[in-house]
Amino acid sequence: MASPTTAETTSAPPRQGRSAVLWLSTIAFTLMFAVWLMFGILGNPIREEFGLSEVQLSWIVAAATLNGSLWRLPAGMLADRYGGRIVMTVLLLVTAVPTYLVSQVNSYTTLLALSFLIGLAGNSFSVGIAWNSAWQPRDRQGFALGLFGAGNVGASVTKFIGPPIITGTAGATYFGIIDGGWRLVPVVYAVLLVVMAVVLWFGTPRHDLRPGTEVPLRDQLTPLKQMRVWRFSLYYVAVFGAYVALSSWLPLYYMDNFDVSLQTAALLTATYIFPASLLRPVGGALSDRYGARRAMYWTFGAMLVTSGILMMPNGFVVVQLPDGTETEHLAYHLGLVPFVLLVFVLGCAMGVGKAAVYKHIPEYFPESVGAVGGLVGMLGGLGGFALPPLFAYTKEWSGFPTSTFGVLFVLTLICSVWMHWTVVRMLNRESPHLANQLDHPTHEETPA
């Protein structure tokens, strides 16, 4: 049977196989995301075993994030050209190798290199976006891409299965070569990656849709010249890059600042990861109904409020009186419960925002979803690479752990100002006669 032509793939996608592509790609992406961010939980036992500093550990997390972002553009284009089925299957199998080798690592340098290779798993996002965009009708793309993106919940999988495996198997050895404890987690993931590759290959339609087969590479890359693409990318740094960074950073933040156990820190982090992931389909549906730009206003508003509160350091103001005595005023302390609630709201906002950003792409660039979606995902992921070291360095420089959220506040503020400035310019261009009318013109006022 001949491959589908470009005309066929850009018209209404076939119904048969659409659900299999959506659900199996979502499950595969969830697993890949869990592998990509597994160092968020493995980080603490690794730090203790290898005697690492906080900055050294942040680079292990950052290395995986870097490689999970660098190839998103070419991965999305490959999915458009050769089909998501084969590209996703290859990613699953290739990632399984370094994932297993982590269980055998004995040095920080080797661990850093393997972490970088495991980052390949993160590129599955742009593959799935391009694959599902080809298979889903346009009026359902917001919801479908949001559902696929909910695979971000994989970030919490290790948070749940990691601590029980680590504590329950510590000191054990299996088959004479596999150690228990934290080293057993990557072995479990390596097996699951191979199994998922087999299920995906045989469970999705053999004749895949490939909308980029007859589109020249130059034409696929042409939209990347538009400033709009780079603006979407910055938005994605705020809603996804920061999500990836916080997913890995929060367990350590909870343990260091609230003196909780690893398992408790993992569960508390899940209260951020779940809404930031599972609300993505809701964000897609809201974007379908009310518009992606309106959803972005809601997102950035909520992120500014929550990060603005979270960045305030605990402490008080000391006032020295004329007689030399000192008094304390304006004492401020954010306890564990309000902190968790604020981070939960922050996660809700990010979940909606991630879907809203990607709702823009098939609307503005229907023929270049792989390339545009790949670039946006790549730059968003690179934000996730840059932020953990930035969190560590700003904390080291300021002495305040809450500087983490100060970084997020500044990033969100920049995105908000740029988006609003763009909207105002667009409205002025469309209605220049109203550009300088701050109040209603007097001749249009209704007499009392």
UniProtKB/TrEMBL annotation:
<keyword id="KW-1133">Transmembrane helix</keyword>
<dbReference type="InterPro" id="IPR011701">
    <property type="entry name" value="MFS"/>
</dbReference>
<dbReference type="GO" id="GO:0005886">
    <property type="term" value="C:plasma membrane"/>
</dbReference>
<feature type="transmembrane region" description="Helical">
    <location>
        <begin position="405"/>
        <end position="424"/>
    </location>
</feature>
<keyword id="KW-0812">Transmembrane</keyword>
<feature type="transmembrane region" description="Helical">
    <location>
        <begin position="85"/>
        <end position="102"/>
    </location>
</feature>
<feature type="transmembrane region" description="Helical">
    <location>
        <begin position="234"/>
        <end position="254"/>
    </location>
</feature>
<feature type="transmembrane region" description="Helical">
    <location>
        <begin position="21"/>
        <end position="43"/>
    </location>
</feature>
<keyword id="KW-0534">Nitrate assimilation</keyword>
<dbReference type="InterPro" id="IPR020846">
    <property type="entry name" value="MFS_dom"/>
</dbReference>
<feature type="transmembrane region" description="Helical">
    <location>
        <begin position="108"/>
        <end position="131"/>
    </location>
</feature>
<dbReference type="InterPro" id="IPR044772">
    <property type="entry name" value="NO3_transporter"/>
</dbReference>
<dbReference type="GO" id="GO:0015112">
    <property type="term" value="F:nitrate transmembrane transporter activity"/>
</dbReference>
<feature type="domain" description="Major facilitator superfamily (MFS) profile">
    <location>
        <begin position="20"/>
        <end position="427"/>
    </location>
</feature>
<dbReference type="InterPro" id="IPR036259">
    <property type="entry name" value="MFS_trans_sf"/>
</dbReference>
<keyword id="KW-0472">Membrane</keyword>
<feature type="transmembrane region" description="Helical">
    <location>
        <begin position="260"/>
        <end position="283"/>
    </location>
</feature>
<dbReference type="Pfam" id="PF07690">
    <property type="entry name" value="MFS_1"/>
</dbReference>
<protein>
    <submittedName>
        <fullName>NarK/NasA family nitrate transporter</fullName>
    </submittedName>
</protein>
<feature type="transmembrane region" description="Helical">
    <location>
        <begin position="182"/>
        <end position="202"/>
    </location>
</feature>
<feature type="transmembrane region" description="Helical">
    <location>
        <begin position="336"/>
        <end position="357"/>
    </location>
</feature>
<feature type="transmembrane region" description="Helical">
    <location>
        <begin position="295"/>
        <end position="316"/>
    </location>
</feature>
<feature type="transmembrane region" description="Helical">
    <location>
        <begin position="369"/>
        <end position="393"/>
    </location>
</feature>
<feature type="transmembrane region" description="Helical">
    <location>
        <begin position="55"/>
        <end position="73"/>
    </location>
</feature>
<dbReference type="GO" id="GO:0042128">
    <property type="term" value="P:nitrate assimilation"/>
</dbReference>
<feature type="transmembrane region" description="Helical">
    <location>
        <begin position="143"/>
        <end position="162"/>
    </location>
</feature>
<comment type="similarity">
    <text>Belongs to the major facilitator superfamily. Nitrate/nitrite porter (TC 2.A.1.8) family.</text>
</comment>
